[in-house]
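Quick one:
INPUT:
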């Protein structure tokens, strides 16, 4: 169960960026896709969420193949992009209803969850606000509330901490851990390796589009002759 990436090859306009990538994000695990700028992390996530067709390979979420059953596959995932995507003309509440409705989860139970998350991120009472009124961090929090309000088998998060204050970063880590404990598979990208070692189960290291390591923080650190607390020095 969970996400299986098998022999994925992907790229743009004939140029291969990710080659023969194979790893899994089992239900209940948090996996961080890491690598230098341009290594292919966001490209991989775009494939995982079904935004682009692979050049080769397959993606499976539980029993759903992206190729054979794209609607069922996509219904079981929530995605938080690196840059918040909001419609200028929709209020905060309208955005949240839209996301829930797209997943057929716009009901009282999910709206109660929305209200808990709005309170957590100090957005209560701002349901009538338009995106133009939000700060950068608040826009990111709207994406977090939308994604964490959904019941999905997979959470995909691209660079989750950009623009978030220290309190919101801690709350996000707690939410990821909570969702993983409830059986959700979590796949994220991050450059904050030491911080990640405290909550990530496995690291998938991409080098020039190829998987060069998969395993725990401890194994990642020792494979590069580092201590776990020095993981931020991995690429220096
Ligand atoms: N839309 C695109 N068209 C063409 N090439 C692209 C496109 N997006 C990314 N690339 C190229 O694909 C390669 C991988 O980019 P990608 O964004 O996946 O890297 P990344 O690991 O997410 O990097 P970062 O840490 O900077 O976010 C880079 O060489 C980049 O120039």
């Amino acid at each position: 169960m969970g996400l299986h990436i098998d022999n994925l090859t992907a790229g743009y306009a004939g140029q291969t960026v990710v080659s023969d990538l194979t790893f899994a994000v089992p239900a209940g695990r948090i996996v961080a896709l890491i690598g230098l700028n341009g290594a292919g992390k966001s490209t991989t996530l775009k494939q995982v969420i079904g935004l682009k067709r692979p050049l080769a390979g397959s993606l499976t979420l539980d029993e759903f193949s992206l190729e054979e059953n794209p609607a069922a596959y996509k219904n079981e995932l929530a995605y938080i992009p690196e840059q918040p995507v909001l419609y200028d003309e929709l209020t905060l509440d309208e955005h949240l209803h839209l996301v829930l409705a797209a997943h057929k989860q716009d009901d009282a139970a999910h709206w109660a969850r929305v209200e808990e998350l709005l309170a957590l991120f100090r957005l209560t009472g701002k349901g009538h606000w338009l995106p133009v009124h939000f700060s950068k961090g608040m826009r990111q929090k709207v994406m977090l509330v939308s994604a964490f309000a959904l019941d999905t088998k997979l959470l995909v998060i691209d660079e989750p901490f950009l623009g978030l204050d220290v309190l919101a970063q801690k709350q996000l880590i707690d939410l990821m851990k909570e969702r993983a404990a409830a059986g959700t598979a979590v796949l994220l990208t991050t450059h904050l390796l030491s911080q990640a070692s405290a909550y990530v189960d496995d690291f998938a290291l991409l080098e020039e589009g190829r998987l060069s390591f998969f395993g725990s923080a401890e194994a990642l650190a020792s494979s590069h002759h580092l201590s776990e607390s020095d993981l931020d020095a991995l690429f220096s």
